Amino acid sequence: MTTWWQQATVYQIYPRSFNDSNGDGIGDIPGIIQKLDYLKTLGIDIIWLSPVYNSPNDDNGYDIRDYYQIHSDFGTMADFDQLLEEVHRRGMKLVMDLVVNHTSDEHPWFEERPDFYIWRDQPNNWGSIFGGSAWEYDDSRGQYYLHLFSKKQPDLNWENPELRQAIYDMMHWWLQKGVDGFRMDVINFISKHPDLPDGENGDGSPYFMNGPRIHEFLREMHDNVLQHYDCVTVGEMPGTSPEDAQIYTNPDNHEVNMIFTFEHMDLDHAPDDKFNYQPLNLIDLKDNLEKWQHALHNKGWNSLYWNNHDQPRIVSRFGDDQTYRYESATMLATCLHMMQGTPYVYQGEEIGMTNVSFSSIDDYRDIETLNMYDEKRTVGIDEATVLDQIHHVSRDNARTPMQWSDDENAGFTTGTPWLAVNPNYQTINVKHDQNSEQSIYSYYQQLIAMRKQYDIVTNGDFTLLERDHPQLFAYTRNNGHENWTVYCNFSSDTITLTEIPNGEIMIHNYDDGILSNSQLRPYETIVLRNMKEVE
Ligand code: NOJ
């Protein structure tokens, strides 16, 4: 049976960068309300809101000081209630970010409930994901606390049942308010190996990813909270294999509905340094996505994404953001949205927003980027090399303000934006895109509508074609009644296939039909439908 979230398309809002209604340079909740019709018209079913809770913003809201309050940068709880009502009035749903692997060190628990955190007399050798040691000495306690992210993000102690109950109470509170689910931040980190052993070269991940009690904790969360609501959950889970995902997302296991894998996002950089980027080998990407498609078919559920607030922009990463921006943005969208799973669109993806190349480190804001810059410069790597890596990989690529128009600051704010707007906003913006003959937004609209209209997009099986072709990603979807073939040219070359079969064209990013000689032009994509003969 298909559930509502299996047929849905999700849109992620990074509130700080979406739309500023009061001119303080920071996006806010009233600003989001102003744009709900834009999302409804796109065809969006679910909005995922990155954190809007009270936070000192060491990691832009992923460091929560109070789970029950809205950050004043974003507005008030009354604004939030209005947002929820307006989202529901339009027939959409709202999913909150649930950040419960850690809090801010400014959360009152950090003072009042030391038993809610992880303390040791001696640190182990784990490194933090944002650089440096994962341990910080606390003078008043005379002990070290664990922080897998910044030192202002102490990890919570999920071994403590009272902590778990406090989290479940908070989740009930939001669900009773009417929110429709949670995107769970690094949720597969919450169970740590009790001994916290040293890791190889300081890598503690084998001892904190998918740890010994993770399934037990997720089931408990489900029994205690989630089963009481018609809600959707997606767990952000770095370091998770398709086999792990089968356990996490099998409906009989009562854990989460789907997870975000990182495997396909880890193919274009060195294993130990995400900033050390490398060209993508398309064959690796195909192998990987095929593996996930097969592993979860009828066994669990996939989420489908190219972009979020932590990833560089896909059109710059796997496409061509210059000559073939329209073609490659629409090709990438087709490739993703025609697979089985729930697709996620990240703000700006629907107009083909690109990476940014600020010339000075002073223009960057992201803690991960700033820490990495300091570390690499300290060991003597030259400025140009480090900046080049930042231009390709920094999370700020995704976080520059949404480009609404060619007005000053892209129509995002009348004030000074907290992070500079990408200078290309004069040509890449919503207004321009929507008035263009080649509108990426309209193309996304069509893809999203196809998912609603044709059951095969949700339920068909997946077969990879042309496995060894270095430039072509092609696959079929099949549901017993019909068969769809999806062709995606991942290159700026024209490629020649043995044959492109006949079929009804469901979507195509060149408007003059298929070439008669079975060629696919640069970044061309096409979906063909064939009905099965009734026997
Ligand atoms: C994953 C979030 O997506 C990222 O933005 C954040 O920095 C870390 N988790 C820590 O919360």
From TrEMBL:
Belongs to the glycosyl hydrolase 13 family. It catalyses: Hydrolysis of (1->6)-alpha-D-glucosidic linkages in some oligosaccharides produced from starch and glycogen by alpha-amylase, and in isomaltose. The keyword Amino-acid biosynthesis does not apply. SMART domains: Aamy. This is oligo-1,6-glucosidase. Its EC number is 3.2.1.10. Keywords: Glycosidase, Hydrolase. One of its GO terms (molecular function) is oligo-1,6-glucosidase activity. InterPro entries: GH, GH13_cat_dom, Glyco_hydro_b, O16G_dom_2. It is an enzyme of class 3 (hydrolase). Gene3D superfamilies: Glycosidases, Golgi alpha-mannosidase II, Oligo-1,6-glucosidase, Domain 2. It comes from Alkalibacillus flavidus. Residues 12-399 form the Glycosyl hydrolase family 13 catalytic domain.
